[in-house]
Write a structure and sequence with these properties.
This protein has helices at residues 11-23, 26-38, 54-65, 83-92, 104-115, 128-135, 138-141, 152-163, 178-201, 217-228, 241-249, 257-260, 279-282, 303-309, 340-343, 350-369, 383-396, 406-413, and strands at 3-4, 45-49, 70-74, 95-97, 121-124, 146-149, 171-173, 209-213, 233-237, 253-254, 266-269, 290-293, 310-317, 320-325, 330-334, 378-379. By secondary structure, it is of the alpha/beta class. 49% of the residues are buried. This is Adenosylhomocysteinase.
Amino acid sequence: MKGRVKDLSLAEQGRLKLEWAMKHMPVLMRLREEGRDKRPLAGLRIGAVLHVTKETGVLMMALKDSGAEEVVLAASNPLSTQDDVAAALVEYGIRVYAWRGQSSEEYYWCIRQVAESRPDIVLDDGGDLHAMLHSEYKKLAGEITGGTEETTTGVIRLKSLEREGLLLYPVVAVNNAYTKFLFDNRYGTGQSTFDGIMRATNILVAGKNVVVAGYGWVGKGIALRARGLGARRVIVTEVDPIRALEAVFDGFEVMPMSEAAGIGDIFVTATGNKAVIRREHFEKMKDGAILANAGHFNVEVWIPDLESLSVRKRVIRENVTEYTLRDGRKLYLLAEGRLVNLVAAEGHPSEVMDMSFANQYLAVKYLHENKGRLEKKVYNPPRELDEMVARLKLETMGIKIDELTPEQAEYLKSWSYGT
């Protein structure tokens, strides 16, 4: 069975997108070429629930070309699939269950197909596959060598399983690789979030007041890009005092959402939590305020409150839903509250996903090579693999760096040198 996608006739268009991504993902392409020669994943069955984009496609092809017996892919969001890429991957021999615009039932049906393929190693983005395996497929989960997780949200869910003693296989938290979160979360999400907002609305960011909820690495990137695009004020809301203090020292205004609600023209959530913008905030917002979410799930802008406050709802542009409140004010929700960068745009640039997916590839290889030797825990990626990705990325960019002299290396290892 080849899976289920929207339209196989879109494959040629998808191949062109994959070709474009390959040109901008030199680290992963180098690993893929090495994998073709050495076939380090020979015989493995791999199941993945990731955003089905051109960048993900390059990763899936690299895994297959490195010897994987079968690669099965489903989408990690009902609206993020690039249907032409999905078709091209099926043509390449990857079993894909993904199409844009899935219902909730269809979304989880697709993830079940991945679980039921009896994978040896699983890759996830957000934790829905891991959660399903630990609730509906415990016997199958007990046979899995290990898994990976791409997102902060997913790592939080897996850490919860580990704390409760319920984790059934070791997981490498790819999200925690420095070459992932310092670049993908910050620069990738920062740029692609505004790409999505501007494609959906065609508004000018310069001169607007932008409110960013959350100042983790994703929030930092969004705030940085808002300032770079000329936002008049960039306001950060936070619950963590250390992150709030960091935002202040980075030059941003910090205040509670209850205050920011009446100031913002554009609101972007990036917290991983629910109901970050809710009834009391909607009630204070300006007419015409724009609401976007950059977190994994569509729970940060609390849609039930927005629905209950509204007397009319209509789609006014693709990916823009207008809510008319009882007093006549209009609020505009982008991408149905889902990941705006993937629903209204194409997700992160290939250059930054090059590092993220190189980490995914190396994590799969690491789990396979260490089968039976890892505890059922959430692991950070090994530092040497992180450094390998960084060195390869610098090399492909034509950048050289210094190396320690033997004397310097000895000095750093010794406790005996003083002033």
